[in-house]
Amino acid sequence: MAQVEFQNVVKSYGAFEAVKSVSFTVEDGEFVALVGPSGCGKTTTLNLVAGLLDLTSGDIKVSGKTISDLDPKDRDIAMVFQNYALYPNKTVQQNLAFPLKMRKVPKRDIGAKVAEAARLLEITHLLDRYPRELSGGQQQRVALGRALVRDPQVFLMDEPLSNLDAKLRVQMRSELKRFHQDLSATIIYVTHDQLEAMTMADKMAVMSGGVLQQYDAPERIFEEPANTFVAGFVGSPSMNLLPATAVERDGAVYATGDGWELVLAPRNAASARASSGPGIILGARHSSLGLHDTETPGCIQARVFTVEPTGDITFVHVDVGDSTFVISVDPERRIAADQTVWIEFDQNKLHVFDAQTEKRIAPG
Amino acid sequence: MNSSTGRKPTPRGLFGRIADHRLDYLYILPAIGVMLLVIAYPIYYTFYLSFFRTPPSLAMSDKVFNGIGNYITILTSESFHEVTINTVVWTVWSTFFATALGLGAALVLNRQFAGRGVLRGLLLIPYVISAVAASYIWRWIYHSDFGVLGAILNRLGIIDGKLNLLDNVNLVLPSLIVVNVWKEFPFAMIMILAGLQTVPDQLLKAARVDGAGAFHRFLHVTLPHLKGVMVITVLLLFVANLNHFTIPWIMTGGGPAGASDIWITQIYQIAFGRIRFGLASAYSVILFAVMVVIGYFYVRALTGNDDVRRRG
Amino acid sequence: MSRRSYNAGWSLTGWVFLILLLIFAVAPMLWMLITSFKSQFAALKYPPEFIPSNPNLEQYERLLSPKNEVGRQFLRYMANSIWVSTATTILGVAVAVPAAYAFARFRFPGRQALFFSVLFRNMFPAVVFLMPLFIMMRWMGLVNTYSSLIITYLTFGLPLSIWLLKGFYDNIPIELEQAARIDGCTRFQAFYLIVMPLSAPGIIATAIYSFITAWNEYVYALTFLNDDQKLTLPVGLQRFFTEYATNWPGLMAASFIMSVPVVVMFLILQKYFVRALTEGAVKA
Question: Which terminus of chain A is more exposed, N or C, with fewer CB under 10 A?
Answer without folding.
Answer: C
